[in-house]
């Protein structure tokens, strides 16, 4: 007779001691809430009339609105990539899906601003959105490579060699 060992997964418990959610589920829930709050704030900030935002009319920073678009959409891309990578495998399809969805949202956002008093639709703002989107995805890629400890193989343009820092094992090449 064979006996199968069941290894329990780490869980958080509710007040009665019953498992309520795994760490992965909790991590996804937190990241999704952070994304939803951030995206809602971005939408609200870009659709408020300028007269309701104090200190926005005149600034010492040239192209202040373009910098704001760059930062807002960079953060949005970083957060959306984080959430998508928890659900899907982070491959070319996922990257394109994130890029297209945020680029489309940016275009829709600019069009909707034309209906807000003291706001206008500006193609240069959408270009700043795309630049921020690209920078956000680039930051996500770089942070992901640092997090898993993978070196970047310039020859094949993909992660090829794990870095075995803690163990003294010899490095093995994968797919290279």
* Poorly predicted tracts of residues: 151-169, 171-176
Let me know the average pLDDT: 76
Provide the succession of SSEs: EEHHHHEE
The outline comes out as globular
Head-to-tail CA distance between termini: 45 Å
The value of Rg in angstroms is 22 Å
**What about the largest sheet?**
2 strands, antiparallel
Percentage of residues assigned to helices? 55-70%
Provide the β-strand percentage band.
5-15%
Strand arrangement, largest sheet?
1-2
Describe this structure in words.
- The structure is a single chain.
- The chain has a two-stranded antiparallel sheet with strand order 1-2. A two-stranded antiparallel sheet has the order 3-4.
- Helix 1 (23-47) runs antiparallel to helix 2 (64-87) and helix 2 (64-87) runs antiparallel to helix 3.
- Helices cover 55% and strands 9% of the residues.
- It is mainly alpha-helical and 176 residues long.
Brief summary:
By secondary structure, the chain is mainly α. It contains four helices and four strands.
Question: How is the topology of this model organized?
Answer:
Layout lengths: L10 E3 L5 E4 H25 L16 H24 L4 H22 L9 H26 L1 E4 L4 E5 L14
Antiparallel strand pairs: 1-2, 3-4
Helix pairs in contact: 1-2, 2-3, 2-4, 3-4
Keywords, separated by commas or semicolons:
about 180 residues; disordered C terminus; two-stranded antiparallel ribbon; globular; two-stranded antiparallel sheet
């Amino acid at each position: 007779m064979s006996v199968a060992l069941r290894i329990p997964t780490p869980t958080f418990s509710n007040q009665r001691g019953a498992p309520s959610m795994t760490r992965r589920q909790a991590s996804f829930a937190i990241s999704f809430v952070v994304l939803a709050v951030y995206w809602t704030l971005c939408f609200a900030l870009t659709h408020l009339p300028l007269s309701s935002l104090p200190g926005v009319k005149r600034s010492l920073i040239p192209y202040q609105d373009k910098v704001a678009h760059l930062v807002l959409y960079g953060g949005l891309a970083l957060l959306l990539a984080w959430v998508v990578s928890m659900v899907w495998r982070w491959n070319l399809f996922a990257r394109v899906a994130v890029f297209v969805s945020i680029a489309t949202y940016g275009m829709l956002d600019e069009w909707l601003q034309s209906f807000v008093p003291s706001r206008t639709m500006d193609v240069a703002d959408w270009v700043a959105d795309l630049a921020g989107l690209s920078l956000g995805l680039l930051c996500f890629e770089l942070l992901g490579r640092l997090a898993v400890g993978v070196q970047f193989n310039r020859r094949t343009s993909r992660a090829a060699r794990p870095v075995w820092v803690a163990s003294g094992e010899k490095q093995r090449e994968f797919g290279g």
